Every structure is written in C-alpha cells, then in structure tokens.
Amino acid sequence: MSQTEGARLFREAWIAGVRRHFPGEPKPGYVTPWEDTPEWERAAAGAVYAQVRQFLEVSEGHAVRLTREQKGRFVATCWTAQMYRHFEDPKPGYVADWPDLPGWQRETDADIFEAIEKDAS
Prior knowledge:
By secondary structure, the protein is mainly alpha-helical. The protein has four helices and no strands. Helix 1 (about 5-20) crosses helix 2, helix 1 (about 5-20) packs across helix 4 and helix 2 (about 40-60) crosses helix 4. It starts with a helix and ends with a helix.
C-alpha cells in the first residue's frame, strides 16, 4: 500500500472511530472526508501510518500482543510528533499526553492501530 493509500486508511479509521466513540455529535472537522482534509493533516496521517507499519514489521508481527492501550499510545505519540513537525506552536489539544486525551480519542487511536494492523496482515 502506498503512503497516500495508508494515509486514507488512517483517516477512514479515524472517522469511523470518532463516529463510534465520540459522545454526541462530533465537530465537523473530526469527520471531514479525505477530499476536504488539509494537506498537512494528510501528510501527518501518512507519516503515522508508515510508522505503525514499520513498527509492525520490525516487531516481526509480535506487536499484535500489545494491549489496546499500548497500541493507542503508540499512535498518539506518533501523531504528537507530527504536530510538532507541522506547527511551530501547536494547539495544546494537538499535543496532549495520553492521560490528558479524552476517552473517545484514546479508543479511536487504538482503533487506528488495529486497522493498520489488519491491513498489514
């Protein structure tokens, strides 16, 4: 899968996770379709997709044994690094540490890891 296709998979998993876990009606920006997603966000999604894929490869498949929380934390950490890459002074919510993320976002990050994991198998 190309990095662009991986970025789309990431975005689709994000939207599905938001729709599944967000309490109430999510902000429109949380569920913006791929075609309307800003370029920086597409690039960040592609980079995180690639990082998760590489992590799965270098673990020789053993990353499947991680807990859902560990999987979500990995995605969240990779995303935070991308926010620092794309923004000089990112919004605090873009770079919040795992314990400070809302539950719906932690669950969505774990869903993203598992979607990439499924795609890699």
